[in-house]
């Protein structure tokens, strides 16, 4: 990706002498609240504009952020006071919004997935490379102390050579609590595309990119019933696989077993575990930024908690954007980047294709394993890579 473009005349944050990347937010829906809470406390970011198809919702959000204004989406893409567009729209609109922002000369950071399909995602990355701007993408949960401490254990060889891993996300389905859950069960939805980015981004961060997958899937229930809200009791059709399982072969040889399901009422399966030649590693929930990491060493023969050894402390959504701003200043790759997000999307598409065909599928993409986050680092700190 081209990294030659720098923010246009960035301002200085009131809390730091570091030039602040000016952020325009598109999409003021449910997830935006977490970003609106975190971004204002990150010294190298400043929200300057908020846009939404619902003008009243954009105005209400902007009114709660000092120095921000409400804007129309098309205006925001070319605004002089915006360096990066934070894309918090629905997945089906991710590529369209990214292209509009790139055409306006803006860097882009979006919620997962990067786009609805790998074809759309590839077009976004190609457009950004031509324009010389950066693309970032959630999840940035892997930058917190949980996954980064687990990575530090693996990088130090404390469990030997990684041999295998397991990653499980099981739930009976989102219709029990979501008042309008149909989109989870339509094309682009399902447990893999909904929650898979957290687990697969963590596995790639820990074990490196994936080169081949095999899988199986099923749809045990053809309909679901909304369990809460004004439409409770309404039945709707299920159009996607709701139970997906597979094996991922990483480029370095480790094999990860993945299970993503909307059909399990209860389970005691570990979220992620990594098994090495000299021990095992228990990894916290990749949908969060922190959590307990435990290690079982062959010589110790018991589980022990691992002290914090890496990651952004007290992180939350938006830290990936701040890390991108830091990397821009240094001229180095940012961690929650488009190539990683594209590879994760490619793995998910390939796993579903393998489940349909019954054959193994080779992954057409790869990516660099992002740089580790040093212990005690802040996303705005400069020259982090030199500390490794």
What would you note in describing this structure?
The structure is a single chain. By secondary structure, this protein is of the alpha/beta class. The protein folds into two domains: 11-137, NAD(P)-binding Rossmann-like Domain (Rossmann fold, 3-Layer(aba) Sandwich); 142-305, Dihydrodipicolinate Reductase, domain 2 (2-Layer Sandwich). The chain has nine helices and 18 strands. It has helices spanning 32-38, 55-63, 73-76, 94-103, 118-131, 145-155, 190-207, 319-330, 338-357; strands at 11-12, 19-26, 45-51, 69-71, 84-87, 107-110, 135-137, 162-170, 210-218, 223-225, 235-237, 243-250, 255-261, 272-276, 279-283, 294-297, 303-305, 361-362. Strands 17-16-15-14-8-13-12-9-18 form a nine-stranded mixed sheet. Strands 1, 2, 3, 4, 5, 6 and 7 form a seven-stranded mixed sheet that branches. Strand 3, helix 2 and strand 4 form a beta-alpha-beta unit. Helix 4 runs parallel beside helix 5 (118-131), helix 6 crosses helix 7 (190-207) and helix 7 (190-207) packs across helix 9. 50% of the residues are buried. The model is unreliable at 1-16 (pLDDT under 50).
């Amino acid at each position: 990706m081209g990294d030659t473009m720098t923010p246009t005349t960035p301002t200085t944050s009131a809390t730091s002498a570091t030039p602040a990347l000016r952020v325009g937010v598109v999409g003021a829906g449910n997830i935006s609240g977490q970003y609106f809470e975190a971004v204002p406390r990150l010294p190298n970011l400043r929200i300057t504009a908020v846009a939404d198809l619902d003008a009243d919702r954009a105005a209400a959000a902007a009114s709660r952020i000092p120095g921000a204004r409400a804007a129309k989406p098309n205006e925001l893409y070319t605004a002089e006071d915006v360096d990066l567009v934070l894309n918090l729209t629905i997945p089906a609109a991710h590529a369209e919004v990214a292209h509009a922002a790139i055409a306006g000369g803006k860097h882009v950071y979006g919620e997962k997935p990067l786009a609805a399909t790998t074809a759309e995602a590839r077009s976004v990355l190609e457009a950004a490379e031509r324009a010389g701007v950066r693309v970032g993408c959630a999840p940035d949960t892997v930058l917190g102390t949980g996954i980064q401490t687990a990575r530090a254990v693996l990088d130090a060889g404390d469990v030997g050579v990684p041999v295998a891993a397991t990653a499980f996300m099981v739930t009976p389905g989102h219709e029990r609590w979501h008042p309008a859950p149909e989109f989870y069960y339509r094309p682009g939805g399902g447990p893999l595309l909904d929650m898979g980015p957290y687990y697969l981004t963590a596995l790639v961060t820990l074990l490196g990119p994936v080169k081949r997958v095999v899988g199986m899937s099923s749809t045990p229930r053809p309909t679901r019933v909304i369990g809460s809200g004004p439409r409770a009791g309404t039945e709707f059709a299920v159009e996607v696989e709701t139970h997906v399982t597979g094996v991922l072969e990483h480029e370095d040889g480790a094999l990860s077993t993945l299970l993503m399901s909307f059909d399990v009422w209860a389970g005691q399966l570990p979220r992620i575990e990594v098994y090495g030649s000299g021990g095992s590693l228990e990894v916290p929930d990749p949908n969060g930024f922190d959590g307990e990491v435990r290690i079982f060493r062959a010589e110790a023969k018991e589980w022990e908690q691992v002290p914090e050894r890496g990651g952004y402390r007290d992180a939350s959504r938006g830290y990936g954007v701040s890390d991108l701003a830091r990397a821009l200043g240094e001229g180095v790759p940012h961690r929650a980047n488009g190539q990683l997000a594209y590879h994760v999307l490619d793995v998910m598409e390939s796993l579903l294709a393998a489940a349909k065909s019954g054959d193994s599928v080779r992954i057409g993409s790869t990516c660099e394993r992002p740089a580790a986050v040093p212990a005690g680092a802040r996303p705005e700190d400069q020259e982090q890579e030199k500390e490794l």
